[in-house]
Amino acid sequence: MEKAVNEGPHHEVRDGVWSGSWVAERLGVELAGDDGLTDLLGLALRRNPKRAHLLVSNVLGKHVPQSPSVVHGHGVALGRRVRDLLGDDEARRAVVLGYAETATGLGHSVADGLGLAPCLHSTRRPVAGLTPAGGFEESHSHATSHLLLPEDPALLAGDGPLVLVDDEFSTGNTVLNTVRDLHARYPRRRYVVVALVDMRSAADAGRLEEFAREIGARVDLVAAASGTVRLPEGVLEKGQELVARYASGSAAESSPAGAAPPWPLAQSPAPLEGVADTPLSGARGTARPAPSGPHSDDEGTAPYATRIDLQWPAGLPDGGRHGFTPAHRERLEAALPGMAARIAEALPAGARRVHVLGFEELMYAPLRLAEALERATDAEVRYSTTTRSPVLAVDDPGYAIRTRLAFPAHDDPADGPGERYAYNVAGAGFDAVVAVVDSTADTPALHAPDGLLACLAAHTPQVLLAVVPSYVPETPHAPERPSMLPEPLRGPAFSSYAPEEVGWLLQDLSDVTLEAPTEEREEAIQSGGAHYAESLPVEYQPSERYQALFHAALEDSAARIAQAVGVVTEIVLAERSPRPVLVSLARAGTPVGILMRRWAQHRHGLDLPHYAVSIVRGRGIDANALRWLAEHHDPRDVVFVDGWTGKGAITRELAQALTEFEKSDGVSGFDPEIAVLADPGSCVRTYGTREDFLIPSACLNSTVSGLISRTVLRADLVGPHDFHGAKFYRELAATDVSVAFLDAVSARFPEVADAARAQAGELLAADRSPTWAGWAAVERISEEYGIRDVNLVKPGVGETTRVMLRRVPWKVLARAGAGSDLDHVRLLAEQRGVPVEEVADLPYTCVGLIHPQYTRGATGADGKAVTV
């Protein structure tokens, strides 16, 4: 591996004050390296007590408004160096890949400098009917799952150099994981890693060289500057104190006058003296009230902004989500002057300072529009984009993030609603702000009283809205599907359940070795090297003491479970369908689906069809299973069933997947509402109870679920016409309690029948609207404990048990005074050396925390050995 010389344009520190001095003075953090390092980077505070400092780029165009020609120029300069490194012949065969969200514009700009190569960027936005060509997990991001969705698969399948572009090269984990994944599918001889700054330690630099030797490829590195971050002793404790002090009441975080905090997050911080929410100087930060009156005009545009018709060229991609070729670049260059002129015409007379604000992954189109506007007008033009990343704002010249606007997501993101941010825009004295979004994000939420446009309108005299059409490739013609999908698998050939109890819309992978040690899986999942559905955990074999706890819990809770089964089944029969088709989400939902089927038979004489299907977080529901169901049943009769809700991630996953399925297959009628036994997260309307209590089927894995593993989705095992896979562990038959669990609960049906009917009647008459309290609680816990990844927070007794059985647990939070429902959790925690921390007012009985940033070198449950 060879490393190119670091060079590139530099910029003066503004007003003689380095925008990292505030953090450096208080934390003792030091940037050491090239002379231009502090020109490129400032410092801010993360909302994370385990990693207090954040490097903030002054030239990326994400957090800090910057001249668009400066932002684009840095990327172009890096691209030209890559072209010099490769030579023209290799440059023509290269592909540039940028990382969402921060490096999408940078990747495009590098491709502009390279001049001869197409570019692509990863995305967190799935597209119905478009099969990912790859993907990876970025475990330390706020939104972890990345997809690669090229319109032309040849972009990734070629053997020319792959140029990977990120804003900052810190440890190299993300790049290594990407190369490892793609190299296994499409081997190449050469990779070039490009970053604005190379901040790796000497050890991390050695890892990249070792990796290049391991895969037998050349890996070059090109960066504008390099250095390291020096952290003094006790920096985390100092950072925690600073974050706690300022985050508890930062008035630097602003929303429109009178607007409510964006749902579903916690309340906005209270004002803190000395940290103003808008002004950088004088009165120009005074917020004007949001406009009164109706929120839409005849064209559907809210009064907070004036819409501009860019006349974007038809069929021109809005960015590199699906690929952007040199021919696309030529079309864009030709159209930019005209689009910039239309923006300039809409600016208020005499506008001296104009800000162009892009939108998350949509960085390149707004950047180029801003650059063209800079050439077309005498106004000072600045550019930045909105972001998912939560950062503390402090109004001090020596701090990189001076102000923060917070608003709800407005593009119906696949991973659910959440808060979004625009930094250093409020109070910067802009005479106009041009918000540039794609059409997918031009939603009512964008125009709402608490939305982005209203936030901007409170801080600038004029807001303009430019909408770029979201480019969606035509779904390639798929070969004709087989006329018949396989019939469901049934016991005793597959599972220990009776054949009439459930049909599994799965394929049998019992003969494939899929298990890996828990620690090995955890490291691969969190590093992004593997998706959790590509392997299986080694099945936990319970001790005699643990089995005794299971049987005691079953005896104690059987009647309570039976009543909840009755309640949810009666609600389904009354509201959803008189003869529902029960479809359980494998595998936790399967015992519940069987119990609901038994209740319908016991109380109403109904023989309901029941199937189990696979759904995978980040990958969606098995589309072939949906096709089979649509061929054999009316989709309007299908009721999806699960055991319990945690934070509601699967609820959202199902809704998104069904929307995509309707678009791709034209099949409508499937209802995304899940019926669950217990809904402690308040995520659904159809439930038996909202109490968070022990459901004994959560205590074990396959031995209480018909001896079936969790489902598997791996490209080499599951083809386009296959159901997702699972294993039947016949060898565990001696310890199987699947049928015993069902029989113990069913035996209590007669004694709870009247109570269940009465409770169902009360719920049918009540307001059961989800509050999503569980999601909000998980967000708070994730922030409070510095985890920064809601996927590592597993709320509720059932999910906590799964953490103990399948993952590498960090700690368990238990509601103060929780009783026997947690006996088995305490036993598992004792066996694994995991601390149980009692917490007052916990909204769940317990919450399991997966070890954050786990590697097998992380020793101790307190996380102190984790690299941060």
Task: Describe, in short, the structure shown.
The chain has 868 residues and is an alpha/beta fold. α18 (649-665) links the parallel β27 and β28. Residues 318-453 form the TRSP domain.
Please provide a written account of the structure.
This protein has 868 residues and is α/β, with parallel strands linked by helices. Helix content is 32%, strand content 18%. It contains 23 helices and 34 strands. The chain has a six-stranded mixed β-sheet, sandwiched between helices. It has a six-stranded parallel β-sheet with strand order 19-24-23-27-28-29. Helix 3 (68-86) packs across helix 5 (104-114), helix 15 packs across helix 19 and helix 22 (797-806) packs parallel to helix 23 (823-832). The radius of gyration is 28 Å and the shape is globular.
- Total strand count, please? 34
Please give the order of strands in the largest beta sheet: 1-10-9-8-4-5
Low-confidence stretches: 1-13, 138-144, 250-302, 477-483, 524-532, 856-868
Fraction of residues in helix: 25-40%
Provide the β-strand percentage band.
15-25%
Q: Biggest β-sheet, characterized?
A: 6 strands, mixed
Calculate the mean pLDDT score and round it: 81
Structural class: alpha/beta
- Indicate the radius of gyration in whole angstroms: 28 Å
* Count of DSSP H/I helices: 23
Shape: globular
Distance between the termini: 26 Å
